[in-house]
Amino acid sequence: MQLTQALTRAVQIHPRKVGTICGDRSRTWGEIGDRVARLGAALRALEVKPGDRVAVLALNSDRYIELFFAINWAGAAIVPLNIRWAIPENVYALKDCEPSALIYDDEYAEAVAQLQQQHPVRCLIYMGDKAVPSGHQDYEALIRSTAPMENACGAKDELAFICYTGGTTGFPKGVMLSHTNVVYGLLNWIASYHHSDETVFLHASAYCHLAGAWPAMAVTMTGGRHVVLPKFQAETAFAAIEKHRVNHCLFVPTMINLLVHHPDFEKYDLSSVKDCIYGASPISDAVQTAVLAKLPTWKFIQGYGMTETSAVSLTMPWRYHFDGEDHKSKRLGTGRASFGVDIRIVDAQGKELPRGETGEIAIHGPQVMLGYWRNPEATAATIRDGWLFSGDAAWMDEDGFAYIVDRKKDMIISGGENVYSREVENAVSLHPAVLECAVIGIPDEKWGEAVHAVIVQKKGHRASAEDIIEHCHKWIAGYKCPRSVEFRDAMPVSTQGKLQKNLLRDPYWQGQRRAVT
Amino acid sequence: MQLTQALTRAVQIHPRKVGTICGDRSRTWGEIGDRVARLGAALRALEVKPGDRVAVLALNSDRYIELFFAINWAGAAIVPLNIRWAIPENVYALKDCEPSALIYDDEYAEAVAQLQQQHPVRCLIYMGDKAVPSGHQDYEALIRSTAPMENACGAKDELAFICYTGGTTGFPKGVMLSHTNVVYGLLNWIASYHHSDETVFLHASAYCHLAGAWPAMAVTMTGGRHVVLPKFQAETAFAAIEKHRVNHCLFVPTMINLLVHHPDFEKYDLSSVKDCIYGASPISDAVQTAVLAKLPTWKFIQGYGMTETSAVSLTMPWRYHFDGEDHKSKRLGTGRASFGVDIRIVDAQGKELPRGETGEIAIHGPQVMLGYWRNPEATAATIRDGWLFSGDAAWMDEDGFAYIVDRKKDMIISGGENVYSREVENAVSLHPAVLECAVIGIPDEKWGEAVHAVIVQKKGHRASAEDIIEHCHKWIAGYKCPRSVEFRDAMPVSTQGKLQKNLLRDPYWQGQRRAVT
């Protein structure tokens, strides 16, 4: 049970078929297999040892897909760094996981230069198409000049993957996934989303997130075909679907909304698409109506998962978005247990609650992570008796569908990105004028939710909203920064002194359903 | 990762849906879940302890499906005894695995009485619909009278399943499968055969074989529906497909052949079927032509697997049965690696052979059995360095499709050349007059063994032996072509539809010993 098996299968069953398409480049699975074995050897020659970590900071590309396998081929674990994070955040990740190499592309050349100043990584590999910076290794030259090596991938319970997630404590945590975790997650993905070697998958979600990385590996396991966009853009997505007869894709509802209302929508033939995975939030009534009318061949499947559970834990097939012969519409739900995954709604003691009662989603099965990298306390707090406590509050109906009512961790989902309010509060708090602050998600037509900061200023201070927002941009990624700021004289607190965020949030949501539900 | 998770998921997501239909009986997943928890408790009360084995000797039924889960619910492992075996063979199995209980139905009441004389099992549970024999427990009474217990299923690497396979050495061997083996096999099955909770599966293969047991567990995992036939019979299969709108099934080619040529074929609506799994042998030209004309909605998927690898290891989708845009027909093949399974063609030293060279199929992955029960020698001979050596001779083409040329023991040695009968059968089958054929080695003074073909012709066809031999010379090397041909009205087949080659071969070998044993 090894992550690399996904690739060796594709090479065995479809050696001459084009496996990756990225811009003008396309490569067969035979070529990709050969390149991965060479890259693995090159990493070894660069003293990447078995058990090491290798970080990647890059936009999506065909090469990035190779890296999922090449790094593991050399016996190391891949660490896809978050492409939206600010320098201090990724410095934290680098210091934490101590990679022996960092691989980057043109888009992040400048960021890498800054990272190097704060936490130098010994070996830098440039994966771009311009001139190779002095002292850095060149990705393509390494492939050309190194003979392929035998697969030296780790064993089933060894580390394959570390993915950093924004921490509720303000510090990122490295989710450790074993080969078993990942491979089981891939099989589950394939079975849940009906992939086969006929799958042509459009990648528009960043590979540093599970929504990008898992299809990159799962479609490889099927021997299908990847069509890779460096980032999401409606026009390029339209063109790629039409040109390459894409039949599977993944978009968050915000992207879907953008697509169906785009002025060029009618210009393209999008009828090759059969299945579209979505996640992060339920699909709104307006979007569902629009896709039914405008994308009749597309079947939407909702997926709920966490990096901590190697992607998909709950799924909702398209037919449950409507009333059926034997069921009512489950559209406000998040899906039900996917294959081989145990789901329970539990109380604070971990005891399963009756259907209809709200508790925390707990997840059990072979996909549950090894733990958080070098963080036994956080691991112990999250995995108890083999059950992973998701931090999401939900109830379950009589048909096993879960309905998320709140993120215990108080996450805001803005444009499909998870923003943890605590993390933003930490950044806001660093401003000298701030006495207290609370960050909430408020309704936003474009982003689903917008990050909104409520602030009590220190006496004698008079910071403006602009001051606060500008300050935050120095500390955290742009998408996490508040889009609006509200000043108050005091925070609403309970008699026990606990901040009552719901009193801040509720007035904004009168008559509306939060995207995060 | 527990076998019982398949059931708990079905109960969670489809509690009120009918899960099993058997004759006039139907039960919902909620009822089945409750019955299993009661049965598990009853087994415990009957002193079945964790780690024990519980044997079953019965025809297929809805109750048998419950047993896969109930025995494991109690923490024991299930041992489905072979329903076709003679008393001495099952006595051997009982002595070998020492079950603490034996569960049987009406069909095997007499056999169990005989087994008891030779190897008494302490606890006997009667699962029939007649009067309960004195001193035996009654299945339904146990369920009625016992309160349900919490799931006490074993852990991932613990024993879930022992299945006895006929040994070429003359002694049966008990294949030990862990929960991980089984669950991984189920996920692979679901992904390979496109099951979902919309699956309505017709069971016509005995549950003592993987072709019966794996869909029984896999379709449970999806929350689909089982339609159970006690045994295969064309009329009941037709009627069940039509009545219950069956959409998935599994038949061996001999059964398929029987179905499409049955006089009542036209009377039934069989168009609800979408996918039909088949195995044991490739589908002949005649059968393929017939199903294309008569069963246009059915897509046939070939599966190759062994009990030792928890079912499916190679699969061949329907489109590979024909020439396609990007491939030639692979119809004579057996499929290619299924998800997460490593397949190699290796020489006697276990070294991978180049494509096109014939060697032994070796299989690696999380599905490979724990070993043979109390038989470390046989285990060591079969699993080497984590690879399971199948005993099947095959070669692999450039697209990763394996072509089984024969079971090692079925090889014919003629004039010092190895002739694999399967390969000759494939060539013979391409003749338009051939409905069924079997190729065996018969004694020959000059060549040691001579290639001999036994053929059943299609109705209205009258090919001569010369026609057949001449035809074969177009497809395979001269030394592989039949030297003699025998025409018969029907093949000797088991009730499961499996060709009994020994009955063809034995008369020729009276008083002589074959070189290949």
Description:
2 copies of one chain form a homodimer. Chain A is of the alpha/beta class. Chain A folds into 2 domains: 5-299, ANL, N-terminal domain (Rossmann fold); 411-509, ANL, C-terminal domain (GMP Synthetase, Chain A, domain 3, 2-Layer Sandwich). Chain A is 30% helix and 26% strand. A 9-stranded mixed β-sheet of chain A has the order 2-1-11-10-12-13-14-15-16, with helices on both faces. Chain A has a 5-stranded parallel β-sheet with strand order 4-3-5-6-7. In chain A, strands 17, 18, 20, 21 and 22 form a 5-stranded antiparallel β-sheet that branches. The two termini of chain A are 36 Å apart. The relative contact order of chain A is 0.09. The A-B interface holds A 1, 5-6, 8-9, 12-17, 156, 180, 183-184, 186-188, 190-191, 194, 196, 221-222, 317, 326, 336-337, 339-343, 365-366, 398-400 and B 1, 5-6, 8-9, 12-17, 156, 180, 183-184, 186-188, 190-191, 194, 196, 221-222, 317, 326, 336-337, 339-343, 365-366, 398-401.
Q: Top keywords for this entry?
A:
alpha/beta; 517 residues; homodimer; globular; nine-stranded mixed beta sheet; Rossmann fold; 15 helices; five-stranded parallel beta sheet; GMP Synthetase, Chain A, domain 3
Structural class of chain A: alpha/beta
Q: Could you name the CATH homologous superfamily of the largest domain in chain A?
A: ANL, N-terminal domain
CATH class of the largest domain in chain A: Alpha Beta
Low-confidence stretches of chain A: none
Instruction: Give the strand line-up of the largest sheet of chain A.
Output: 2-1-11-10-12-13-14-15-16
User: What is the arithmetic mean of pLDDT of chain A?
Assistant: 91
Cα shape of chain A? globular
Looking at the overall shape, the CATH architecture of the largest domain in chain A is: 3-Layer(aba) Sandwich
Please give the number of β-strands of chain A: 27
Q: Supply Rg of chain A.
A: 23 Å
Q: What is CATH's topology name of the largest domain in chain A?
A: Rossmann fold
Tell me the quaternary state: homodimer
Tally of alpha and pi helices of chain A: 15
How far apart, in Å, are the first and last alpha carbons of chain A?
36 Å
* Beta-strand percent range of chain A: 25-35%
Compute the number of structural domains of chain A.
2
The pair of chains with the biggest contact is: A-B, 38 and 39 residues
Overall helicity of chain A: 25-40%
Main beta sheet strand tally, sense and closure of chain A: 9 strands, mixed
